[in-house]
Amino acid sequence: MDTVSSDIYGSLLSPPSLEEWLSTVSSMPNGKAPGPSMITYEMLKHLGPTTNSLLLSSIRKCFAFANIPDL
Hints:
Blueprint: H1 7-12, H2 18-27, H3 41-45, H4 49-65
């Protein structure tokens, strides 16, 4: 492979859609230890529509400002 098109990177840094977010959350394995936030995959899987939308809005703002907070 001689070159890699820079076009492929645009979608990697795009914030997820609601469908992508829900698909990712539903595919996460159960029974894993939480990270520094202490939020487990099971907790994310039990969020309702309103809370999922609010969390996704926060995630999108992190992407927009290129600011991922440290925990």
